[in-house]
Amino acid sequence: MKFRFIGWLIFMIAFVPNSIAASKDTLAINKKATKPNIIIILIDDAGYADFGFMGCKDLETPNIDKLAKSGVVLTDAHVSATVCAPSRAGLITGKYQQRFGFEANDTGDESVGDIGLSDDVVTMADVFKKNGYKTIALGKWHLGYSVSDHPNKRGFDEFYGFETGSRSYFPIKNPNKKQMLQHNGEQVVFEGYMTDVLGDQSVKYIEENKEAPFFMYLAYNAVHTPMEAKLVHLEKYKNHPRQKLASMTWSLDENIGKLQAKLKELKLEENTLIYFLSDNGGAANNDSSGGVLKGWKGNEFEGGHRVPFVFSWPSVIKSGQTFSGLSSSLDIFTTSIAAANIDKGDGLVLDGVNLLPYLKGEKKGNPHDKLFWRKLEESAARIGQYKLIRLERYGYTFYNLENDIGETIDLSSKEKRKFTTTINELEAWESQLMKPLWVEDRDWMDVTYHIHQRLMENKDVLYKDPKKMKEILLKN
Question: Do 334 and 295 form a contact (C-beta atoms < 8 A)?
């Protein structure tokens, strides 16, 4: 009996601490499982058709394609603006940016100075930080240059990036405050290529925050101009018709691959929700392709705001899916807090929809019945498969995207009832908005106006930038 008791005691001494440790590990895992990591990979000025998962044959994107295969490709997904800054404002706040006057590109103009994000608007980072997440912003900010608009003042614990909308991918000698690479306001002197620097930093932050849930806003400036690439990649694609874009895209893909590998190494990939999208359509000056879509960055045709969009959350969402429901970058905020079981409260009004029930197959149909866009003189509305485009002082065109994805057949005179209803919907939405707090350079507004008018008339665009506009106008 005595020996049996001693044996039992030895067993308990050896087993119980291990059991307690195992229980603690299990509890930690279960606790983390209810709080997924959230990563938004936002790229810049990428064409709708410029990735393998979107059917591209000449640009190599194996890691991004792998990400797409691990989740859902949303084929009718849109951003809330056709240019960089307002699109980012809509994404990070989960509401139409026109509601707080952030309608034009950049963050202010000469007449009003720098305005940026409204001081009282709530960001995703504010909400995640309040709810125990480590919040990290990397890369391009472009949401305001004042102290109150610095990422560290808008909910981010860490900011490793730059404030301006565009800069060289290589080190700049004596950069100004907007252009400099910084860490929480302090200049970082770097060597190498910006896409690599941001990719390496994303991996570093994941390693540092592997024990607790994190929200990472990873905003690459690729593939925005200037068209700069590493020599090794330019050599790799020396015979490519889109050499610089192919090189920049390859570097982007490499660095997204680094992030995927780190998540896998740390066994975080299953419980990490990743969004991948472009901030607007491909630009007219970076060799991007919108495929069958009409238009490009800066205009309200599909090529300006329909974007490649991937949603990956392996432990929750079945892989290898496509989803054709009407969706928006505005949905990212609402979906993410739902994924994290965060109650947004009654005071926070969001325009986005929780995509999870649709992507899990619990709901059918479209997350949105309608979406709207406006940038100063150009506006658009989407009601079901119908698309309205309005150009001030010129008029309207009206399309059925189900039959005419290229937006070439104007139905405004044939489907008058639906046409009038859509105009009324656009005007009802506009009645909720603020007047824009700043405008864009008049030359660029004139260029955009010309592009819209020519595209509405199904005519070739004569110029795409102010310099070319002035040359042509002088000749005439």
Answer: no
